[in-house]
């Protein structure tokens, strides 16, 4: 199918973009187009105007500081996987971001699709929504009234649905730094490499000064309608990292999630994968935590 007719606008400043978005009824932001254009082609969306952000200056930066990583609205997925100084700094400060990004789709899609577009799209099968949640992240939202920071808990309302007002532009996403003595890992199961995952898991393990487990958190993709963060600490709290019972944490995770059955997998299969992926990723994250504690 072809999209319904729409007006196309390519503003040269954020103010102009916000004007266009507030003037028009049914205007939508276009970033990488990797989710929006298929929706238009299938006529699942039919905005009157597409406001293309791609010529707005200042939205394509990756800034890594001691506090975390700020990713601008025009930063493509692929950018975070390059061996450039900004991407390498981002991977040191918050390694989960690049690790999860490597699982997003195929190279062609990662070359156009954006990290922030993925978050604004709010697909519960997308990796970036889960990473924003697990890192305790937020987005900066611009409207004609000004800018505000919206934490992940207040952003995701349902599948493909956020709390953003119509006409808002997400200017950047902020992923807080990995805490001291912590490690992360990410893994997923997809039918073919590059497909949306049947189930995925991201985890963070934190150790105390004696290398005992002090905190374990996990977030899953394609499990539930919105991203959630699960605290698995009680299963392994105080255990020495070398002998921690990660299988017990996986078993706890299985009891906490509430997956759905769909055409790709049953709820029971997804629950099984949650346990397996949790156990596997926790072992990897613990190894990184040991390394970063040295
Ligand atoms: P667009 O398609 O341009 O926009 C998506 C939505 O977000 C639109 O509603 C748009 O209005 C809104 N939006 C975008 N940017 C902003 C902004 N700055 N402010 C406000 N609203 C905004 N994604 C995954 O996570 N994992 C996958 O495995 C995966 N596989 C894919 C496989 C295929 C075949 C395809 C086509 C896509 C896949 N994707 C996957 C989606 C891809 O990651 C997209 O890049 C991403 O979902 C959206 O980013 P975008 O920049 O392309 O956004």
Automatic annotation (TrEMBL):
| Keyword Nucleotidyltransferase attached | no
Q: Which domain of life is it from?
A: Bacteria
Single GO molecular function: oxidoreductase activity
What residue range is the signal peptide?
A: none
InterPro entries per the UniProt record, alphabetical: CO_DH_flav_C, CO_DH_flav_C_dom_sf, Diverse_Substr_Oxidored, FAD-bd_PCMH, FAD-bd_PCMH-like_sf, FAD-bd_PCMH_sub1, FAD-bd_PCMH_sub2, Mopterin_DH_FAD-bd
- Alphabetically list the UniProt keywords: FAD, Flavoprotein, Oxidoreductase
Per the record's keyword annotation, is Zinc included, yes or no? no
Q: Where is the FAD-binding PCMH-type domain?
A: 1-180
One Pfam family hit:
CO_deh_flav_C
> What's the protein here called?
Carbon-monoxide dehydrogenase medium subunit
- Provide the organism lineage as a comma list: Bacteria, Bacillati, Actinomycetota, Actinomycetes, Geodermatophilales
């Amino acid at each position: 199918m072809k999209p319904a007719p729409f007006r196309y606008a390519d503003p040269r400043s954020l103010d102009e973009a916000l004007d266009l978005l507030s003037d028009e009824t049914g205007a939508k932001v276009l970033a990488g187009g990797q989710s929006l254009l298929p929706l238009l082609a299938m006529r699942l969306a039919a905005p009157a105007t597409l406001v293309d952000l791609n010529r707005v200056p200042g939205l394509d930066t990756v800034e890594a500081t001691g506090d975390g990583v700020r990713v601008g609205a025009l930063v493509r997925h692929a950018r975070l996987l390059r061996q450039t100084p900004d991407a390498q700094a981002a991977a040191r400060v918050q390694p989960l971001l690049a690790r999860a990004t490597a699982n997003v789709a195929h190279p062609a899609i990662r070359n156009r699709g954006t990290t922030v577009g993925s978050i604004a799209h709010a697909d519960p099968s997308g990796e970036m929504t889960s990473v924003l949640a697990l890192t305790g992240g937020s987005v900066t939202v611009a409207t004609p009234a000004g800018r505000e920071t919206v934490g992940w808990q207040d952003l995701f309302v349902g599948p493909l649905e956020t709390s953003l007002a119509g006409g808002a532009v997400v200017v950047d996403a902020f992923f807080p730094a990995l805490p001291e003595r912590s490690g992360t890992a990410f893994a997923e199961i997809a039918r073919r490499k590059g497909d949306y995952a049947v189930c995925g898991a991201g985890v963070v393990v934190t150790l105390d000064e004696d290398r005992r487990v002090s905190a374990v958190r996990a977030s899953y993709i394609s499990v539930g309608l919105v991203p959630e963060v699960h605290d698995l600490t009680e299963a392994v709290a105080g255990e020495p990292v070398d002998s921690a019972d990660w299988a017990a944490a996986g078993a706890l995770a299985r009891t906490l999630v509430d997956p759905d059955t769909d055409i790709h997998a049953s709820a029971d299969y997804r629950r099984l994968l949650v346990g397996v992926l949790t156990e596997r990723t926790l072992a990897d994250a613990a190894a990184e935590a040991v390394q970063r504690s040295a």
